[in-house]
Description:
The protein is of the alpha/beta class. It has helices spanning 6-9, 18-22, 30-42, 95-100, 120-132, 155-175, 190-196, 199-205, 222-244, 275-291, and strands spanning 57-61, 110-112, 139-143, 180-183, 249-251. α6 runs parallel beside α9 (222-244).
Amino acid sequence: MSFQRLGALATLTVVASGAALASCGGSGPERSANRDARASKTSAPARTWTEGYPNSIAVLGHSGATGEGSDPDQPGVEVRENSWATGSNPQVNSLYLRILDHNPAIKDHNENYAEAGADVGALAGQADRLLDSDAKADLIVIQIMDNDLTCPVDRDALSGFGKQLTATLKKLAHGAPNSSQFVVSQIGGVDTYAKTLTREERASQGGTGPCDFMTPTGSVPLEKVVRAEKAIHAYEAALKAACSKVRQCTYDGGAFGRVVERREYFGPDLNHWAIAGHAKAAAVAWAALRRAHVVPKAH
């Protein structure tokens, strides 16, 4: 089940299981984890980026970064040039293109490892492929969480998610010591997403599960909106916590989550971003990178 868009979360059910939790185990006792976190925060060397801008960029994560469904003439097709992170479409003005405006050295150094349906376990594999490549990437963008969500929140699954994400971020920091990682939150909110759709569209995305905030008749039950938002915020807190344990990592501070969504941001499946949605994501992510001084602020 995909949680790339809030529309998919509208049919959310509990997905945690004993087998799933076993695959999300931690890396050792709390004392060891704390020691590793301190080491990560003190061992990163100075970056060697051109004029403060990275010379290469890569994105890891799920279909939110692949451009899937962004072309109305190609439903369900990945159009990676439309990716908000690494795409080459000037209508999107991705992070890659924005950096290229300031640093020509990044030209053609924009790698996209994201995959449809990826969860935090798949993210670890993407990180391995990046680190095995010749170009380790100066800026590593990460969009993950949707396919790991449990709602109502399963605390064991949430803990496992956080531990596995932390391990992957530390692996990236160790394997690409001159890099920075940038982790983004869930774009938009449950309530604002539902309000962008017609009643018929909500009905097409609706369900009857405990977190189905849109019903098969197109109504929006408040108690389920609250439940779904609680799940999203819990996993966003895990994103922030994992990132805080790695010196090279920056969380977007919930910037994606503050986006007030519009109908034009969605593709035909109501589950993935259209070009306009990718353009909005790129603008929000760029502003967050500048606020955090990952790239220079505008003069």
